[in-house]
Amino acid sequence: MRFRDAAHYVRDDPDRGVFRVHRDLFSDEALFELELQHIFEGGWVYVCAEFQVARPNDFYCTKVGRRSVIVSRDEGGKLHCFYNTCRHRGATICHVERGNKKYHVCDYHGWTYDSSGRNFDIKDRKEGAYPDSFDDCDHDLIPVAKFEGYAGLLFVSLKADVASLEDYLGDARTFIDLAMKQGPDGMEFVPGRTNYTFNGNWKLQIDNGMDAYHLTSTHRSFVNTINRREAGQSSNQQANSQNIPSRFALESGMFNFENGHAVIWSDQPDLEKLPLFGAIDEVRARVGKIRAKWMLRGCNLTIFPNLQIADSTSLILRTILPLAVDRTEMTMYSMAPVGEALELRTRRIRQHEDFFNITGMATPDDTVIYEDCQNGLSVGADDWLQCFERGMAALKPGADAHARELGLSPVASMSGRYAVQNEVCYHSAYREWVRRLSGIAA
Ligand code: FES
Ligand SMILES: [Fe+2]
User: Considering only CA atoms, which of 204, 260, 303, 213 is closest in space to residue 430?
Assistant: First the structure.
């Protein structure tokens, strides 16, 4: 398919109540290539949490689009991020996801770099008969163009000409704070993580991470299991997740932010089942009544294009790595306050296993449905998806009362009964998609 202007693929006409996205966005390989170049390798992308590289010489290896990078804390405690490639012949320097190393030694000819990326040794340099001009170029690992952090989360941009990270995140920062400030001594990942792939486009995860509409249909087995537990038909005393249908009477809403970010939120029915509820007095005293109330709300946040933080039965952080137009790699962590009481941590882990974990009752349903979508989207029908208008009649430009309570100025707000299960929260991502791919038509 020949790429036309990006706006051709997204019909965005709020005055007429129209928002439609063309199916090609999920199946066209040429569009996928442009997404890699202009979204994942052309702007801010989440790489890892600061606490994953907490000690001097800790490193974490990950990918920004197709490019392998190393995040490393040097001896003096300063963080760096460089491309994972040797200056000599280009070999990959680091082959493991994480670890602690004072020196990274290249397997090929033994060039050695320290944890700040500085070239520490060129093997047998003295005997090498190098000309003086050899030192015209530095021999250190190549730093990425931009590397900044917010609230303990680290982001990279491979392109230098971008807004500051704070400006890029904008008001979505408030929801990062609501997740990252739950513990008096900070946050950590529960040891271990799940890493899995699905045969579907990465944007299926972007949307589904904020999709309340699918819960009662895709996740029937979860709902049925909770119903049986609540009816006393299960001997499982450990997992005690909240039910989904009981949320329908509750208040909910969403905010669309600039630059592709969005969040859906809802009140939760059984606060006492939440791990954080057991520590809420300390939380309230530290962050105030309003923020403590929001920390107990269900919030599913998307930081475009590759980070989602979901807080419902437990708190998770997941990353999205596009591998092909129809293949995506996910990494998911259970996140928790440092020093959490054992009883609360146990409940958190059981509820993570229950719903979010790849062996739980929700995520496998989601990945299967993504593959179902990908198969359907690949039939080649020249058509427009019809999901984006659910909740549109209740959409308000700017802030609603809930946004004002948090001091936010979103692009748009929607709130109402949970049963709305809005899908207008997806608008931000596709507007950003248009913005990034505009003006590059071949
Ligand atoms: S490629 Fe790294 S030392 Fe030769
Ligand atoms: Fe789901």
Answer: 260
